[in-house]
Amino acid sequence: MMGFLTAEKVMLFTAPLTVFLIILESFLSARYEWKFYKWKDSLSNVFLAACFFLIDLISKGAGFIFISFFYFHGFQLAPDPKSSAVLYWILLILLQDVAYWLQHFLDHKVRFLWAGHIHHHSSAEFNFTVGIRSAVFEPIEKFVFFAPIALIGFRPIDIIFAYILSQAWGIFVHTRMIKKLGPLEYFMTTPSHHRVHHGRNVKYLDRNYGMLFIWWDKLFGTFEPEDQQEPVDFGIVKNVQYKNYPDIIFNEYRQIIKDSTQKLSLKQRLKYIFGPPGYSHDGRSKTAKELQEEQSPN
Questions:
Q1: How far apart are CA 110 and CA 60, in angstroms?
Q2: If you write DSSP's letter for every residue of 188-256 in order, what string do you get?
Q3: What's residue 104's pLDDT?
Q4: What digits encode the pLDDT tens for the residues 34-51?
Q5: pLDDT at residue 4 above 60?
Q6: What's this model's pTM, rounded to 2 decimal places?
Q7: Can you give the three-state secondary structure of 237-289, one letter per residue?
Q8: Burial of 29 (0-12, 13-18, 19+ CB in 10 A)
């Protein structure tokens, strides 16, 4: 852990802070008629947050053992956390953040992974409760991306701590109250950057994956600034009318089964599972890349 700061202390601090921010934002939204909240949607967000917490609680032990295996059989290339603590933590935070960027990128590019991530995007609202509308199966998935960090010698408990820190910031960026954050816009993921990520506008699709730092998107070519001339339309490309709370979680999995069990070639079946969201063998739907190519003036 980072000195006196522990994962438990971070969660103990961020939980009431999150509740306070939700209450403050909802009060101001009602006071100034911003209409940032719909209570039915907010209740869905709380349900998904509870599911995330439950799965995280169940999977945490197995996930920790999983990355510990890589740590104890790895290369021990990381700086010594005692003699080079500052360098150790700077590198760990950077590595954890780029690992999350990769995970997030693949969540949007592989339909099977998108099925476990889509419910974080399926709200047509954007407020602090959307920040807790978590991708329910991320607690399991994240350990796969932590493994390489453990393999090079970063302690598993510290990796999880760095993840919790970045997730705390991730809740903060889910708001429309804050417009721009000055110089932070150049290197941090801000509410403005993350609003773009939640947009269903064609130009905003598959952009701004960063959790803590936005420079990964600038480096890898996935950055898109918020355009004041094109307000963000929140949600997913094909808005779905969900029947109930479980349907929010499992709807996309059912659609994958339906699409991939048609009379198709093996290649087409696999594309419906592992190809990008929006893929169709007959053009009935389009991927984000195809939609953006259609809109491009070139």
A1: 24
A2: B--HHHHHHHTB-SGGGTT----SSBSHHHHHHT------TTS---BS-SS----SSHHHHHHHHHHHH
A3: 98
A4: 999 999 999 999 999 999
A5: no
A6: 0.94
A7: CCCCCCCCHHHHHHHHHHHHHHHHCCCCCHHHHHHHHHCCCCCCCCCCCCCHH
A8: middle
> Phi and psi dihedrals of 18, rounded to 5?
-65, -45
Domain boundaries, the chain: 7-220, 246-295
C-alpha span between 84 and 203 (Å, rounded): 43
Name the nearest CA neighbour of 212 among 167, 182, 174: 167
12 vs 4: CA distance, rounded Å: 14
Q: What is the DSSP letter of 98?
A: H
What pLDDT is stored for residue 135 in this prediction?
92
The conformation of residue 179, written as its DSSP 8-state character, comes to -
Determine the length of the chain: 298
| Helix count and strand count (H, E) for the chain | 13, 0
227-258 core/surface letters (b: 16 or more CB in 10 A; e: else): eeeeebebbbbeeeeeeeeeebbebbeebbee
pLDDT at 20 over 90: yes
- Spatial distance between the Cα atoms of 195 and 181, rounded to a whole number of angstroms: 13
- SS3 percent helix, strand, coil of the chain, rounded to 5, is 60, 0, 35
| Torsion on CA atoms 107, 110, 112, 118, rounded to nearest 10 | 40
Which amino acid appears at position 114 of this protein? W
What's 35's DSSP letter?
Answer: -
